[in-house]
Design goal:
Largest sheet of chain A: 5 strands, parallel
Number of strands of chain B: 20
Radius of gyration of chain A: 22 Å
Distance between the termini of chain A: 52 Å
Structural class of chain A: alpha/beta
Oligomer: heterodimer
Strand order of the largest sheet of chain A: 2-1-3-4-5
Structural class of chain B: alpha+beta
Largest interface: A-B, 50 and 62 residues
Number of helices of chain A: 15
Strand content of chain B: 15-25%
Largest sheet of chain B: 8 strands, mixed
Strand content of chain A: 5-15%
Helix content of chain B: 40-55%
Order of helices and strands of chain A: EHEHEHEHEHHHHHEHHHEHHEEEEH
Number of helices of chain B: 19
Chain lengths: ~350, ~750
C-alpha cells in the first residue's frame, strides 16, 4: 500500500529516469516515485518558487520526501533553476528534502558552511544503486517518525500533558526514555531546530515536527558520535580494533542487542547505542572490548589512534573517519553538537583545515 | 476461578556498587566541571574561603573550606544517601542566605570522577549533641566497585568531639587522581576553572549580582595553586573592559525588558529600547529574569590608542576572554562563551552573511526593508558583532528545584541548560539585544561617515582657501612664492592622483581575480561531473578486471590518477569557497605547506623531485586570510617545480625546500629550488604582469599566464609585506623570500 511519495528533482533526464527506476525498486509499493517535469514555459518576472508551486500540488497528510540534485541549472523550461528554490518551497510546506551533488567530494566543508540550514545530504559518489537504497532508507525513516509521532501526539492530547520539547518528543520516537537531557545537548549550538519551530503553533507545529526531528536525528544525533556511535566509533570507544568489532561474528553476537534500530537505521552500516555497549561490558564484568576479547580468547589489537598508533584511541575523528586519541585531537568544535562528546578532529587535520573551516 | 499465588511478598530494588562509578562518569563530564562542583559545594556550605591544593608528599588533591561542615546526621542521611538532594528543601544557605548553586548531590559523584579514594574530614557544630564534632571517613572506590550489592558495602567512619574553638569546615583529600595531578592542574583545566569561578569582575550583574550593602555575606574566595598572575589579570580586565567601543546592557526583571547601548565616553545610554523611558512588557518563564553586560570591541582604530598600556596586550586579552558567557548563581556555565562556542549564532551568521534579524523582537520593532538587505551600508546585520569582538556575561538564576517546570534548568552534567522554553527566551532576549547593538553601531557608523565626508570636504576647501588667501595677500609675488604655491597645488594633485591610482589598481586586481575565479569555479563544477562519470566507469572496470588481468594493472594506474585529480578538484573547491572569507586568522604555517605539498605528491614523486618542509611545526603566521596565504605558497611552489623540471642538468637531484621562522615582528618564509634559476637582468621583471620565463617549456604544470608572481607581489603589498628574490644559499639556484609583518599597520 502506498503511504506517501518521493519526488525527484534532477536536470539530467537520463540519470533521473534510471535513479527513479532504482528508487521504485527499493521502496516497492510503499511510495509513489515521481520525477519533476515542468510543463510551463518561462514566465518572465515570476520567481522559481512561485512557478514551482503551480507545478506541484502541496502534499497534505501523507509522508512526502523530495530528493534533489544541487545543480538543476539545465532543467527544461526552468533554465537557471537551483536546489535552493526547491528547498525554500519544501521549507514552506514542511516537506523534508535530501540533496546530493554528483562528483561532490568534500561534504565536510560544505556541511560546515551550511550548518544551520538543516538538510540531509547524501553521498552521490557511492553509485546510483546505493544512492537509491539510501533514499529509500531516508524515506522509511520519515514514515517511521511520522507514524510514531502521530501516536505520541494523540497520547499527549489524551493525557493533556504539558508541552513536549523537541528533545522529549525525539526520546519518545526513539523509545529511549531518560536520554532527553543528553539529546537536548545535541540541540545546543544548533538553534535552527528551535528557530524553525518558533513561528508555528498548534497543528501547524505538529506538521513541521517530523521534518525537523528527522533532520536533527539524521544530521546531528546519528552523524556525530555521542549517544549513538558508528561501528568504527564504537570500536574506538570499546578499545578494540574495528576489524574485530565488525568482522568477528562472536563479538557481533555479543553486542547485537546494542544495535540502533530507530528511524534511519541501516543494516549495511550499523549504529550502536553507546549506553547499551557500556551495559554489555558491565554484564560481562569487563571494562573494555579488548578485555572482553581476551576473556573470550579472541586475538585482537586494541583500537589504535590514527595519529599515533602506539597509543589507544577512544574517540572518533570526523574528518578521517577513524579512531583517534584525545591527546592527538581537538574537541569542542563549534559546529559539532555539544552532546557529541566522542566527535573530534585529529590535530594534523585541525591544523590543516581549521583555518579553512573557520575554526580559528 | 481465583488464581492463588504460589508465593508472594515485596522486594526492594538492588543496586550494584558499580552504579556509583557509572553515575560519576555520566553526571560529570570533565575534570574542570568536577572540581567546580566541589567548589560550589563549599560556596553552598557558607564557606568564606575554599583552598584547592596538591599534597606535596602524596600527590593527592585537597579541597578544603571554611564552611559549616557536616554533622554525623548530615553525613549519614545526606552524603551517604544516594540521590537525595538535601538542597531542595531550602534554596538558600543557612548562614549567609546564599542562593544555592549545586543540585542533585552531584558533588559526591564529582569526587568519584576525580580519583580512586577519598579521605573526608569535616568539623561541624552538632546542635543535637551540643558540641563541635569532627568526623573522619574513608572511601576506597575501587573496593566499593568490587562489591556486588551497594547496600552491603561499608564505609568506615569515626566521630570525635572537637575543641569548641575549632573552625568548622570540610576537607576532601582525593587520592589516586584520574590522569595524575598533571591532568587536574593542567593549564587548560586551571584556565577553565578560573573562568568558571571568576566571571569577569569588571562586568555588572545587575539585580542578579547580590547587593553587598544589605547582606551579611562576607564573600567567597577560591585559592588555586599558583595564582600569582591573577591580580595583574584582574587589573588588566578592568582597564580593558572600560575601553569598550560600545556597551550593551540587557535588563529583564519582573517581566519588563530594556536594552541600553552606550558608546565610549557616554554617561547615559545613547540608544535604548524602548526608546522612551520605561520598559517593554515581556512575558517570560525566567522567574528571576536576566541581566547582561556585554562590551563590544571591534577592531577599529583608536580603541586602545593613547592609553598607558600596550594595545597589543589589550587585544590579546580581548581575544582570550571573548565570547558571551552565561553566569548562573555567580558561576559560569559551559559551553556558553567558552572556546569556539557560538551559542548565539553570531559567528555562523557572520560567516554566511546572514542578512535578516533572527530575533522576533527585532523583526517586530526594527524590521529591515527588503531593499536594504543587500546593501552593507544600510543593513545593520552587517554590523552584527562576532563572538571574538564581544566580552560579556549574561547573569541568570536557574531553578534547580523539582518543580522547575519551564524555568531555566541546568542540564544533568552541568554543561549547558535544558533547551526548554525559558532557555529559548533567554536566547531570544540576548540575541535581540546584540542585534539591537548592531543596529546602534550601524547608526553610529552612518553618522561617522557623514561627519568624515563633511570634514574631507572642509579640508580640501581649507587647502584651497589657504592657497588663494596667500596669493591675495601678496601684492607682489616673487618667483619663490609662485614656486611654493605651485608646489602646494602639485602635492594636492598628487594626493588625489595617488588615491585614484590606488583605486584603479585595486579594481584591476579584483577584476583579474574575478575573471580567474569564474573560470576556476566553472571548471571545478564541470570536473566534478566528469569525476562522477569516471568513478562510475571505474566501478564497471573493477568487475571486468577480475576476469582480465591486463585491465587490472591499468585500472590501478587510472585509480591513482583519479585520486590525485580528486585532490586537486577538492583543493580548488575549498579555495574558491574560502576566497570570500576574508577573515584574518593566525595558523600553523607548516600545516598549510604540508597540505600543498600533499596536493602534488604523486606528481613530484613520479618525477623524482625531493620536497622538504623545514618549517618548524609551531611557526604561526600573522593574522591573514588562509586562502591568500595558501594561494601565495601554492604559486611559489608550482614555480619551483617548473624551475627544477626545466633545469637541463642531470648531475643534481631536483629539490624544493620550504623554510620558515618568526622574528619578533616578522613572519618569514623562504622557497628554495635548484632549478634553472633567474638571470640577474630579469630579477625585477619576473614580477611584471604577463612576464614568464617558462612559456617555451613543455611541462604538465603549463606556463601559466605570467600573472602568478605579479599577483603574489600585489597581495603581499596589500598585507603590508613583501616578496623578494634573494641570493640563494649554495646548492640552490633560486630563493624567494616572503616577509609579513606580525601586526598589520
Amino acid at each position: 500500500m502506498k503511504t506517501g511519495s518521493i519526488l525527484l528533482f534532477e536536470d539530467d533526464a537520463r540519470f533521473a529516469e534510471s535513479l527513479g527506476r532504482e528508487i521504485k525498486k527499493q521502496v516497492g509499493r510503499s511510495a509513489r516515485v515521481d520525477i519533476f517535469e515542468p510543463h510551463l514555459d518561462q514566465i518572465a518576472g515570476n520567481a522559481f518558487e512561485d512557478r514551482l508551486k503551480t507545478e506541484i500540488p502541496q502534499p497534505v497528510g501523507a509522508v512526502s520526501l523530495w530528493v534533489s540534485d544541487r545543480d538543476l541549472s539545465a532543467t527544461r523550461h526552468f533554465m537557471g533553476f537551483s536546489e535552493s528554490a526547491v528547498s525554500r518551497v519544501a521549507n514552506e510546506w514542511a516537506v523534508p528534502v535530501c540533496l546530493y551533488a554528483r562528483g561532490s567530494g568534500n561534504d565536510l566543508l560544505d556541511r560546515q558552511r551550511n550548518w544551520t540550514e538543516g538538510r540531509i545530504i547524501l553521498d552521490a559518489n557511492v553509485g546510483k544503486d546505493e544512492m537509491a537504497r539510501q533514499i529509500s532508507l531516508v524515506y522509511a525513516g520519515f514514515v517511521q517518525i511520522h507514524s510514531r509521532l502521530k501516536r505520541i501526539l494523540t497520547q499527549a492530547k489524551r493525557l493533556n500533558s504539558a508541552t513536549l520539547t523537541p528533545a522529549r518528543i525525539l526520546t519518545k520516537i526513539l523509545e529511549r526514555p531518560g536520554i532527553a537531557d543528553k539529546l537536548a545537548l545535541y540541540g545546543s549550538g544548533d538553534q535552527k531546530v528551535l528557530a524553525d519551530l518558533l513561528p508555528f503553533a498548534g497543528d501547524q507545529l505538529a506538521e513541521r515536527i517530523p521534518r525537523i526531528l528527522g533532520y536533527w536525528l539524521w544530521d546531528s544525533v546519528l552523524r556525530f558520535p555521542g549517544i549513538v556511535v558508528s561501528s568504527i566509533a564504537a570500536a574506538s570507544y570499546l578499545n578494540i580494533s574495528a576489524e574485530t568489532f565488525i568482522g568477528n561474528p562472536r563479538i557481533s553476537r555479543i553486542f547485537r542487542k546494542a544495535l540502533y534500530g530507530g528511524p534511519f537505521a541501516d543494516n549495511q552500516s550499523h549504529l550502536w547505542w553507546r549506553s547499551d555497549l557500556d551495559e554489555i561490558l558491565v554484564e560481562r564484568k569487563v571494562t573494555s572490548g579488548y578485555e572482553l576479547c581476551a576473556a573470550l580468547g579472541i586475538q585482537t589489537e586494541p583500537s589504535h589512534c590514527c595519529v599515533d598508533p602506539t597509543i589507544p584511541a577512544g574517540f572518533y575523528c570526523m574528518i578521517r573517519k577513524l579512531p583517534v586519541s584525545r591527546q592527538n585531537s581537538k574537541g569542542n568544535i563549534s559546529w559539532f553538537p555539544s552532546g557529541a562528546d566522542l566527535a573530534r578532529i585529529s590535530n594534523p587535520d585541525y591544523e590543516e583545515l581549521g583555518p579553512w573551516l573557520g575554526l580559528y | 476461578m481465583v488464581d492463588k499465588p504460589i508465593e508472594s511478598g515485596s522486594v526492594p530494588f538492588r543496586a550494584e556498587s558499580r552504579l556509583l562509578q557509572e553515575l560519576g562518569e555520566r553526571l560529570v563530564a570533565s575534570s574542570d566541571v568536577a572540581l567546580v562542583e566541589l567548589i560550589k559545594n563549599s560556596y553552598d556550605a557558607d564557606a568564606i574561603q575554599c583552598d584547592v591544593s596538591v599534597a606535596a608528599d602524596t600527590d593527592a588533591l585537597v579541597v578544603s573550606d571554611t564552611g559549616n561542615g557536616m554533622t554525623l546526621d548530615d553525613f549519614l542521611n545526606r552524603w551517604m544517601t544516594i540521590a537525595t538532594d538535601s538542597k531542595r528543601a531550602s534554596r538558600v544557605s543557612p548562614k549567609f542566605g546564599r542562593s544555592l548553586t549545586g543540585s542533585k548531590g552531584i558533588g559526591r559523584f564529582a569526587v568519584r570522577f576525580l580519583g580512586d579514594s577519598l579521605d573526608l574530614q569535616t568539623i561541624a557544630y552538632d546542635s543535637q549533641r551540643q558540641c563541635t564534632t569532627r568526623l573522619h571517613a574513608i572511601f576506597d572506590w575501587q573496593d566499593i566497585d568490587k562489591a556486588a550489592d551497594l547496600s552491603a558495602t561499608r564505609i568506615r567512619y569515626s566521630l570525635y568531639k572537637a575543641d569548641s574553638s575549632s573552625s568548622t569546615g570540610t576537607t576532601l583529600t582525593i587520592n589516586s587522581l584520574r590522569g595524575g595531578t598533571s591532568v587536574v592542574f593542567s593549564k587548560t583545566v586551571r584556565t577553565q576553572i578560573l573562568r568558571l569561578i571568576s566571571p569577569l569582575s569588571g562586568l555588572e550583574r545587575g539585580h542578579l549580582g547580590g547587593d553587598v550593602s544589605t547582606t551579611i555575606d562576607p564573600g567567597f574566595t577560591v585559592n588555586l595553586p599558583d595564582r600569582s598572575g591573577d591580580n595583574e589579570e584582574r587589573t588588566l580586565a578592568s582597564i580593558v573592559l572600560d575601553q569598550y567601543w560600545a556597551r550593551l546592557l540587557i535588563k529583564l526583571e519582573r517581566r519588563k525588558l530594556r536594552f541600553e547601548v552606550y558608546f565610549k565616553g557616554d554617561s547615559k545610554p545613547r540608544y535604548t529600547h524602548p526608546s522612551e523611558r520605561g520598559h517593554q512588557p515581556f512575558s517570560t518563564h525566567l522567574s528571576k529574569g536576566l541581566f547582561a553586560d556585554i562590551r563590544f570591541f571591534p577592531r577599529r582604530s583608536g580603541i586602545f590608542s593613547g592609553k598607558d598600556f600596550d594595545g597589543r596586550t589589550a587585544w590579546s586579552w580581548v581575544r582570550d576572554n571573548s565570547g558571551v558567557s552565561v553566569v548562573d548563581h555567580g558561576f559560569r556555565v559551559k559551553p556558553y562563551g567558552f572556546g569556539d562556542d557560538d551559542w548565539l549564532l553570531l559567528d555562523s551568521d557572520n560567516a554566511r552573511n546572514y542578512r535578516k534579524w533572527r530575533s522576533d523582537l527585532m523583526e517586530e520593532y526594527y524590521s529591515i526593508p527588503e531593499e536594504h538587505r543587500k546593501a552593507p551600508s544600510l543593513n545593520p546585520m552587517f554590523n552584527l558583532p562576532q563572538s571574538m569582538q564581544l566580552v560579556g556575561a549574561v547573569s541568570v538564576e536557574s531553578n534547580q528545584s523539582a518543580e522547575a517546570g519551564d524555568d531555566l534548568i541546568p542540564s544533568m552534567d552541568r554543561e549547558g541548560f535544558i533547551q526548554n522554553i525559558a532557555f529559548k527566551e533567554m536566547w531570544e532576549v540576548v540575541r535581540a539585544g546584540i542585534e539591537f547593538l548592531a543596529l546602534a553601531d550601524e547608526k553610529e557608523e552612518q553618522k561617522k561617515l557623514a561627519e568624515e565626508a563633511k570634514q574631507a570636504q572642509a579640508d580640501v576647501r581649507a587647502d584651497f582657501k589657504a592657497a588663494i588667501a596667500y596669493i591675495r595677500n601678496s601684492p607682489t609675488l616673487s618667483e619663490a612664492d609662485k614656486n611654493r604655491i605651485t608646489a602646494e597645488y602639485a602635492t594636492l594633485v598628487r594626493h588625489v592622483d595617488e588615491v585614484d591610482a590606488y583605486n584603479r589598481r585595486a579594481r584591476e586586481s579584483l577584476e583579474t581575480m574575478g575573471l580567474l575565479g569564474v573560470i576556476a569555479g566553472f571548471m571545478t563544477h564541470e570536473s566534478r561531473r566528469i569525476l562522477w562519470n569516471l568513478e562510475a566507469i571505474v566501478k564497471t572496470l573493477e568487475v571486468t578486471a577480475r576476469k582480465v588481468p591486463e585491465v587490472a594493472a591499468q585500472l590501478a594506474a587510472v585509480k591513482d590518477a583519479l585520486s590525485a585529480f580528486k585532490g586537486h578538484v577538492e583543493y580548488t573547491s575549498t579555495f574558491i569557497g574560502a576566497v570570500h572569507d576574508t577573515k584574518a586568522v593566525s595558523f600553523a604555517s607548516s600545516a598549510q605547506v604540508r597540505r600543498i605539498i600533499r596536493l602534488f605528491k604523486g606528481f613530484v614523486e613520479d618525477r623524482g623531485i625531493d620536497v622538504k618542509n623545514e618549517i618548524p611545526p609551531g611557526t604561526m603566521t600573522p593574522p591573514i586570510p588562509v586562502a591568500v596565504y595558501s594561494g601565495v605558497i601554492l604559486n611559489l611552489y608550482t614555480n619551483a617545480i617548473k624551475a627544477v623540471l626545466a633545469a637541463p642538468s642531470k648531475h643534481k637531484s631536483p629539490t624544493v625546500v620550504f623554510r620558515g621562522w618568526n622574528e619578533p615582528n616578522r613572519h618569514i618564509i623562504e622557497v628554495l629550488d635548484n632549478g634553472i634559476g633567474v638571470p640577474p637582468n630579469l630579477r625585477e621583471r619576473i614580477f611584471d604582469p604577463l612576464f614568464t620565463t617558462t612559456s617555451t617549456i613543455n611541462n604538465p604544470l603549463g606556463s601559466g599566464m605570467g600573472l602568478g608572481l605579479s599577483l603574489v607581489r600585489k597581495l603581499m603589498r596589500e598585507l603590508g609585506g613583501s616578496i623578494t628574490l634573494i641570493d640563494p644559499p649554495s646548492d640552490f639556484s633560486t630563493c624567494f623570500k616572503l616577509e609579513l609583518p606580525m601586526v598589520r599597520k
